[in-house]
User: Fold these one by one.
Assistant:
Number 1:
Amino acid sequence: MLDEIVQNSSLDDTFEVEKIRADFPLLMNAGDSLHYLDNAATSQKPNAVIDAISNCYSEHYGPVHRGLYPLAEEASQHYENARTTLAKFINAPDDQLIFTRSTTESINMVAQGWLRSRLSKGDQIWVTRMEHHANYLPWQALCNENDAKLKIIELRQDGSLDLDSCIGLYDSTTKLIAVTHTSNVLGTINPVKEICAKAAEQGIAVMVDAAQSVGHVPVDVIDIDCDFLAFSAHKMFGPTGIGALYGKAERLVEMEPLLLGGGMVDSINECNSVWMPYPAKFEAGSQNLAGALGFAAAINWLHENDMALMHKHVMGLTQYALDSLSKLNSIEIYGPRNAQQRAGIVSFNLTDVHPHDVGQIAGELGVAIRAGHHCCQPLMQYIGVAATARASFAPYNSYSDIDVLIEAINEAHSKFA
Ligand SMILES: Cc1ncc(COP(=O)(O)O)c(C=O)c1O
């Protein structure tokens, strides 16, 4: 079937997947016993990232921005170099890239530190129907606290945003639009640049959740012209426990820090304090040096392995998965059908089989997929299901991983339907 699809489409199976795979020790150790298709949850780590973390501790570990001796200065320099690598990757000025723990923390920082003091009774915050809880709950809580309205950008049948039906989206009462760049369930890629341009005309801020896009497609914050953008290292081959927040300069000046403590204060007396300029004012406490170096190493790994080529491979896998799944009986596939309009994330349900059963049978065959609500319960309510099964792809996946997934689905169907 793959030959047929490759011949009839622009798919390319000449990508050297084994070369990429060889960089990932967990996958090499597992061999054929593991078909890891849960990349939207978290990605596996290449040797370059593991080595960067290990080298940090064995060669240049010390306190960041706290010591005057050579090891401490070296540690500080490495940390700032990592910031430069990240900032360049999304075309941000270095100092507008703040290290956080994760996308979740980045978004909560904006909610509590920036929007909370600006939101009044009757104001609106708009989110989309497809938001992850990380980009939904902080805004819902602020609305409840301030008697403001949480408004929802609904979806069209094909899983794209129905922006035309949002009455009042760009009204003066709208204080923020929070939108995911890529849906972690539908795989939809949203027109964030267009939303930012219209919002900017009315002075409305836009928060982009880029957890599923940075590291997978080129992301340029100047081109998108968003006010804030958040992402996590662990979804783009970097370590867990570190993420980033980009903010426009004027927003970062306006924003108050969420965490107060060491390293973020310029002067302090018994009653008052003056914060350091950003980014330091948002990075209280001892910095995650090893995480930052692992994060930068992931970006260097992406550069070294040609992100565009890897993306093309992932698109090929996605189209193959969509085509293979749609040949099955009793299946519903969610989101756009054309791989060119979506990311490498495919959610589906068998009509007569619970997704947890699909996930379990898949697991028994060594196929790691996700089954659940994917932290997107408002979307599940809209689709009318409690959960879906989800396969998500990375450059180290091969077409045969998808063939085994299809086998697993067939087995789940014959066992449970
Ligand atoms: C679209 C999206 N936003 C936010 C998050 C939260 O990311 P993290 O858990 O790294 O904070 C996720 C994680 O699955 C996600 O898929």
Number 2:
Amino acid sequence: MSYWVIVFGPEYEKHVFGSGRKKLCIVTCLHGDEKEGLTALKILERLEGIDGKVKVIVANLLAVKHDKRFLESDLNRVFPGSRFGNYEERLAREIVREVRRCPLVVDLHSTSTFSPPFAISTKEGQKHLELASLTGVKRLVLMGDEIAKGKALIDHCRTGISIELGKKGSYAARENCRKIISNLLVNLGMIEGEGKASDPRIYRTMFFLRAPEGGFECSLHNFSYVKKGQIIGKGKGTLLKAREPFYSILVGEEHSDLLLIGVKEVGKDA
Ligand SMILES: [Zn+2]
């Protein structure tokens, strides 16, 4: 007796706009519940005569449909993926093939709480700084591999940065996306217009603060400057104070057990 096993490939969308020598890849929805990056697709659909090739990947399509961050594993923690792995591991393998040869990759995300837009790079160097600057964002966080352990998408790109656009579901985040993509296309000479490149402030991660047990109320916001001795928040019988000055980022991310990440500002040639 013989039988067929039909294996459906993991679902993602690829859209290609324009033609020419210049190349850019925009990745959105690595997390299915962060849909603000889809604004990039809307912008590109309306443009004509793009000088260069722009590939947009809508990564975790099934998670988007279910409005979930992921189905089996956080996709942005399993790159470069595996052929026989779970759903996201197989998907990661497909996505990495799409982006690997692209010289510039911008990966779009959004946060659980209000935040100004900022870029994240897990690698240091002029190319990553330049790419962040072309998007016009005013902040770049150098994150190393403390969170994704070398398994984020941008760890597997030639030059790739992630951008946190702002709060999930907010008008501000969609508007930030529109500005960032338009800056990027203008600054790369792919479309005509006025693009504002920036000279981003550079931050580096200092520590990762886990939420104490039994509920905790954090009094900080994203990019709050916290002085030494300042109260970070209150929990059951605990009052947490800053041991040294820092800026707080990714405060109260719903999917994470981290309360916040502490970063410090560093020099331009960091
Ligand atoms: Zn995300």
